[in-house]
Amino acid sequence: MAIEVNATPRATQGKGASRRLRHQERVPGILYGGGRPAQNIELNHKELALHLKHEAFHASILSLNLEGEKQQVLLRDIQMHPWRAAVMHIDFQRVAKDKKIHMRVPLHFINAEMSPGVKASGGTINHVMTEIDVLCLPDDLPNYIEVDLSGLELGHSIHISALKVPSGVVSTQLRSGDDAVVATVVVPKAEVEPEVEAAAAADAAAAAAPAGEPAAETKEKEPEKKPGDKDGKDKK
Q1: CATH level 3 topology of 101-189
Q2: What's the whole-number mean pLDDT along residues 92-109?
Q3: Global pTM?
Q4: What integer pLDDT is reported at residue 222 of this predicted model?
C-alpha cells in the first residue's frame, strides 16, 4: 500500500512567503513532471517529519493527495535546515505507469551471522554500498533489495551481479559495465593493527642499519681481566 501524503496548492511565492509558511509549521514544495505543468504546494511539517522517519518514504512510489486528486509521485529532493531538524523545502515528481524511472533502492543485508567468514573466521562485514540505482517501471519498483551474506568467506566479496533483483528491475551501474563490490568480509581491525605495526617496526630497523650489516648487533663482550693483569695485558 502506497504511503499517502497530503498537500494543498500554494498561492504565494518568494523567500518572504516561504518564511511565513514555515512560521506556521508549513513546508513549501513543488510538484512537477508527468507531462503536466509544475505546481507550487505546501505540506504540514509535523506530518511530513513523521513520514521522513520511514525508509519507504524515500525509496517508493507515494500517493500525493492534492485537493482530493491522488497522484503517484516520487520524493526527488528535500532541503533541511543547517542545524535544526526542520524541513525547508521539498520536491515531488509525478510518475507515469508506462515511463521507466531511475531510483535509488536501499539494500537490506541478511544472514551475516551465518557467513563462514564471520562465524568460523571471526571476520566482520564491510558494507561498501547501502543502496543501488535502478531503472524500472513504477509498478516494478521494489522497496528494498536483499543481500544474502550466508555464503560469504573471509576475504571474499559480493558484487552487484550476485544480487537477486525483481523481474523488470535493472541496475544502472551493472548495465554500464561496473560490477561494483556491495559487501565483503574483512579481518577485524584490532587483529590487523599489531601485525602491521610489527612489520613497520622491522622495516624501520632494517632501513636504519648500515648497508651490509644486520639491523641489530650484540656488543662484543670485553675479555675478563685476570689477577695481576694491567689494562688487559700480562704483567712482565
Answers
A1: RNA Polymerase Alpha Subunit; Chain A, domain 2 (2.170.120)
A2: 94
A3: 0.71
A4: 54
